[in-house]
Design brief:
The chain crosses the membrane at residues 705-723. The chain is mainly β. The protein is built from 6 helices and 45 strands. The strands form 13 sheets. It has a 4-stranded antiparallel sheet, with no helix packed on it. Bound molecules: 2-acetamido-2-deoxy-beta-D-glucopyranose (NAG) (5 copies).
C-alpha cells in the first residue's frame, strides 16, 4: 500500500515538474534568423513631408536603379516608414501645400501627394526648387556649423561638424529659435538634429553607405576545435586499429575529465548549465562549429568594402577604397586574403586573417582594364577578359595550373570556348547566335556533389540521371519574340537539346536560367494566350526506360569522345508572380533536396522545391498505383501556387534594384544553407530545404526530457524494494 502511494507521489511529482517546463511547441524562427537592411541610397533632396504644424515626417528623394525613389522617414527617430520607387528619374523637386512637384529630365512636371506619393491631376505653377537649403545664415568655422541671426549677425547656435562632413542637406526653420538640420558625410551617413529653444532635442544618424552592393564573397571563421580534431585524426592515422581505438577512448575520457574539472564536479552546476539558455559566447561558438557564422564581404558601388555578420547584418569593419567600378571580390588562401578587381585596372589584396578586425592592405597593383573577371580554380587563378576581347590568366605563382582547363565565355552574340594549355589560351570553338538572335541568359552546370545517381520510381526501378558534368544552357531571343533554350556540351560545343517557346514571349520582363544536377530551370513571361509568368524545366536522363543505364560506373569517358547522349523530358508551369531573379540552394554534400530560390518582382523571396518543378509530373488519370508510391510524386497541375510558408521574406518588401546578387552559402549542417539577396537592400536568412533533419529545434524541450529521465529513475528507485519484497514473498510462498 505504502509502495503504491510512493509511486503515486513520484508520478505526481513528475507531472508537476513537466508542468513547470511547458513551452510553446511551435517556435517560429521568423525575424530571428533573417534580417534586412532597408536602404534609401544617396539622398538627392530632403523635404518636409507636409507643411502642417505637427508634421513629423521627412520626404526623401534618392536614386534607385535608373529612376528616383520617394521615401518617408520618421523625423523623431529616423525610422524608415515607406518607400515608393517612381520608375523614372527626377532632376528637381518643389513642395507646396502637401503637393510635390517633380521636375523630369525633359522639363515636364509631375505632381504627387507629399504624404503618400499618389499622382495628382494638377496644373503646375512656376517652379522653384525646394531641394537646396538656404544657407545664408550658416557659417562653417573651427570645425563647427554656426547658425547666425539674420539681423544682428550674431551666432545663435552651433553644432560640431562630423569628421568627414560633406554638406548640409536640409535646413528648415518653422518658428523662431527652432530648426531642423541634416548633414551628409563623405562616407554616406546622414545625421539629423532637431533644435527647439536653441537646445538640440533629438539627433539620429542613418547609415546609407551599404546601398547598392556590386560584388560580394564570404569568409568562414576558423574553428579552433577543428585544428585539434585534425591533429588527433592524423595521429590516429599512424596507429593500428586497436591503438587508435584506445587513443580515441582516452581522448574522450580526457575531455570528460576536463569538463568535470572545469565545473568542479558540481552536479548542480552541470544541470544548471544544461537547462540554462546559452549565452552569446556559447551560441557563437556553436555557430562557428556548425558553420552558421559566415562573414559576408560586400563591395558597394561607391567603393566601400564592409564585413557583415551573416546572422544579423552587423557591420564589423569597413574600408573605403574609393574605387567605383569594383567587379569582383574573392576570398583566397583558405579565407586569409581577399582580392578586389575593378573594371579600370586597380586591384587590391587585403589580409583578413583576423576577420573581426579591420584588415590591412597587402598589395595595391594596377592590372590591365577588364570587362569581366572569372575565378577558375580554387587556388586563385582568374581569367580576365579585356575590353578588346583579349583574354589572359592570372595565377598564383605558388600554385601554377598544370592541367588543361576548358573555359567557356559568352556575350550577347556568341559563345566562345577556350582551352588553357601550355601556358597559352587558344580558342577551340565558337557558336554564334542566329542572324536576328540575341543571347539573353546563360548558365553552366556547377561542379558540386550529387548524392543520388538516379531517381527511384514507385515500382522500385531506377531512372538514371544524365550526370555528365560539362553542360551549359543558354537562352536566345529572336525578332519574332520566340525564346529558344539550348543545352550544349561545353567541351565539344555539340548541341544536345533545343526547346522553343513561341507563345509571344515578352522580353521586357526578366529571363532567368539556372542549371542544376541533371536539369535546367528557366523563367519567362509570355503574352499568349493570356499574359502570364511561366517557369519551365528540362530534365536529362541516361534513358527514359527504367533500370536502363548507358554509362559504365568504372569507365572514365574522355569528354572529347563522349558519345552518350541524354534523353530529355520537359514541362512548363504557370507562376502567379513575375520572377525577377532565380538561384539554387547549395548544401555541403548535396543530399538535401535542391530548391529554386525565386526573387519576385513584388519584393519577396521564396523557395520552390525542385520536386514540385518536375518535368515528369503527369496528369492524375495517368498515374498508376505504383507511380503514386514514388517519393514526393504529384500529379501535373499547370499552375504552381505560392506557398505562404515558403516566403523567406515574410512581410518584408525587398528593393534590390536591377542587378541583385542572389546567393546560397552552404553551412556545415547538411540541412541548412544561408540565402542572401544583395543589391540596393540587403537581406539574408537561413533556409532548410528539407527541414532541419540534423538539428534539434531551439524549442526542443530539454527540461521535459531531463524531468522524465529523473522521474523514471525515481520510479525505479521506489519500485525496486517493492519488487524485491514481492520476489522474497514468492520464494517463501507468503500470500499478500
Ligand atoms: C539603366 O541605365 C543604364 C545605363 O545608363 C542602361 O544600360 C540600363 O539598360 C538601364 N536600365 C534600365 C532598366 O532601364
Ligand atoms: C515616430 O516615432 C515616434 C517615437 O518613436 C512615435 O511616437 C511616432 O508615432 C512616430 N511617427 C510615425 C509617423 O510613425
Ligand atoms: C517627358 O517624359 C515623360 C516620361 O518619361 C513623358 O510622360 C512626358 O510626356 C515627357 N514630356 C515631354 C514634354 O516630352
Ligand atoms: C555612420 O553611422 C553609424 C550609425 O550611427 C555609425 O556606427 C558609423 O560609425 C558612422 N560612420 C561613419 C563613417 O561615421
Ligand atoms: C516501373 O514504372 C515505370 C514508370 O511508371 C515503368 O516505365 C516501368 O515499366 C515499370 N517497371 C516495371 C518492372 O514494372
Amino acid at each position: 500500500m505504502l509502495g503504491v502511494f510512493r509511486s503515486f507521489v513520484s508520478i505526481t511529482l513528475l507531472v508537476a515538474m513537466k508542468g513547470l517546463f511547458v513551452e510553446a511547441v511551435f517556435s517560429d524562427e521568423a525575424y530571428h534568423i533573417d534580417w534586412q537592411r532597408s536602404n534609401i541610397g544617396p539622398y538627392q533632396c530632403v523635404l518636409p513631408a507636409s507643411v502642417a504644424e505637427n508634421n513629423d515626417q521627412l520626404l526623401i528623394l534618392s536614386t534607385f536603379g535608373n529612376g528616383t525613389m520617394l521615401s518617408w522617414l520618421n523625423k523623431t527617430n529616423g525610422e524608415l516608414l515607406e518607400r515608393l520607387p517612381l520608375g523614372y528619374p527626377v532632376s528637381d523637386a518643389m513642395i507646396e501645400n502637401n503637393k510635390v512637384f517633380l521636375k523630369l529630365d525633359n522639363g515636364s512636371i509631375n505632381v504627387v501627394d507629399s504624404m503618400n506619393g499618389f499622382s495628382l491631376d494638377y496644373s503646375p505653377m512656376e517652379f522653384s526648387s525646394s531641394c537646396n537649403p538656404d544657407l545664408s545664415a550658416v557659417r562653417f568655422e573651427d570645425g563647427k556649423v554656426k547658425i547666425m541671426d539674420g539681423d544682428s549677425d550674431l551666432q545663435i547656435f552651433s553644432i560640431d561638424m562630423p569628421q568627414d562632413f560633406k554638406g548640409i542637406r536640409y535646413l528648415q526653420s518653422n518658428e523662431e529659435n527652432a530648426f531642423d538640420i541634416m548633414f551628409s558625410t563623405v562616407t554616406g551617413n546622414y545625421s539629423f538634429t532637431s533644435v527647439t529653444d536653441l537646445t538640440s532635442t533629438q539627433t539620429w544618424t542613418r547609415d546609407e553607405s551599404l546601398a547598392n552592393v556590386r560584388a560580394c564573397t564570404y569568409v568562414s571563421p576558423a574553428d579552433p576545435n577543428l585544428a585539434q580534431m585534425f591533429l588527433e585524426l592524423t595521429q590516429e592515422g599512424s596507429m593500428n586499429l586497436l591503438e587508435a581505438y584506445q587513443f580515441r577512448v582516452k581522448q574522450t575520457l580526457d575531455r570528460l575529465k576536463n569538463y568535470l574539472l572545469e565545473r568542479k564536479f558540481s552536479v548542480g552546476a552541470i544541470v544548471k548549465e544544461f537547462l540554462e539558455d546559452e549565452d552569446e559566447a556559447t551560441s557563437k561558438e556553436k555557430d562557428v562549429s556548425f558553420g552558421l557564422l559566415k562573414y559576408l564581404i560586400v563591395a558597394t558601388e561607391t567603393g566601400k568594402i564592409a564585413a557583415l555578420d551573416v546572422r544579423d547584418g552587423r557591420q564589423l569593419w569597413y574600408y573605403e577604397t574609393g574605387l567605383r567600378d569594383i567587379i569582383k571580390i574573392e576570398a583566397l588562401r583558405s579565407d586569409t586574403e581577399i582580392v578586389v578587381f575593378t573594371k579600370s585596372g586597380p586591384s587590391l589584396v587585403f589580409d583578413v586573417t583576423k576577420i573581426e578586425e579591420k584588415p590591412f592592405l597587402v598589395a595595391d597593383t594596377n592590372m590591365a582594364p577588364a570587362e569581366s573577371v572569372e575565378k577558375i580554380s580554387e587556388e586563385g587563378a582568374f581569367l580576365f577578359k579585356g575590353p578588346d576581347g583579349k583574354r589572359f590568366l592570372l595565377q598564383s605563382p605558388l600554385n601554377p595550373i598544370t592541367q588543361d582547363i576548358h573555359l567557356l565565355d559568352h556575350n550577347s552574340e556568341e559563345l566562345s570556348a577556350f582551352v588553357y594549355q601550355n601556358e597559352a589560351i587558344t580558342e577551340t570553338w565558337k557558336i554564334k547566335a542566329g542572324e536576328q538572335e540575341e543571347i539573353v541568359a546563360f548558365s553552366s552546370r556547377g561542379e558540386e556533389h550529387v548524392a543520388n545517381l538516379g531517381i527511384v520510381l514507385g515500382n522500385r526501378t531506377v531512372l538514371y540521371k544524365y550526370l555528365y558534368p560539362h553542360l551549359a544552357a543558354y537562352a536566345t531571343k529572336s525578332e519574332q519574340n520566340v525564346l529558344t533554350v539550348r543545352i550544349i556540351d561545353t567541351i565539344s560545343g555539340e548541341l544536345l537539346y533545343t526547346a522553343f517557346h513561341d507563345d509571344e514571349v515578352d522580353f521586357n520582363f526578366p529571363i532567368n536560367l539556372v542549371f542544376g544536377e541533371h536539369w535546367c530551370v528557366y523563367t519567362y513571361f509570355s503574352t499568349k494566350p493570356v499574359p502570364e509568368q511561366k517557369i519551365a524545366v528540362i530534365e536529362l536522363y541516361e534513358s527514359l526506360v527504367a533500370n536502363e543505364r548507358t554509362s559504365e560506373p568504372s569507365v572514365e569517358v574522355d569528354a572529347l569522345e563522349n558519345t552518350q547522349k541524354p534523353q530529355v523530358v520537359q514541362k512548363a508551369y504557370l507562376y502567379p508572380e513575375v520572377i525577377k531573379n532565380i538561384g539554387l540552394t547549395k548544401t555541403k554534400l548535396g543530399i538535401t533536396t535542391k530548391s529554386i530560390i525565386l526573387e519576385l518582382e513584388n519584393g519577396q523571396v521564396t523557395i520552390l522545391p525542385k520536386f514540385i518543378l518536375s518535368a515528369r509530373r503527369v496528369e492524375e488519370s495517368q498515374l498508376s498505383a505504383d507511380d503514386k508510391k514514388e517519393f514526393m510524386v504529384m500529379p501535373y497541375v499547370s499552375a504552381i501556387p505560392i506557398n505562404d510558408q515558403a516566403i523567406l521574406t515574410h512581410n518584408r518588401i525587398l528593393l534590390t534594384g536591377p542587378d541583385s546578387l542572389l546567393l546560397s552559402i552552404p553551412t556545415d549542417l547538411e540541412s541548412t544553407t544561408l540565402v542572401c539577396d544583395l543589391g540596393h537592400d540587403l537581406f539574408c536568412t537561413r533556409v532548410f530545404p528539407s527541414s532541419q533533419f540534423d538539428k534539434l529545434s531551439p524549442s526542443f524541450e530539454k527540461g521535459k526530457l531531463m524531468a522524465t529521465v529523473i522521474g523514471l529513475l525515481l520510479i525505479c528507485f521506489f519500485l525496486r524494494p517493492l519488487v524485491d519484497t514481492r520476489k522474497l514473498k514468492l520464494k517463501w510462498l507468503v500470500k499478500d
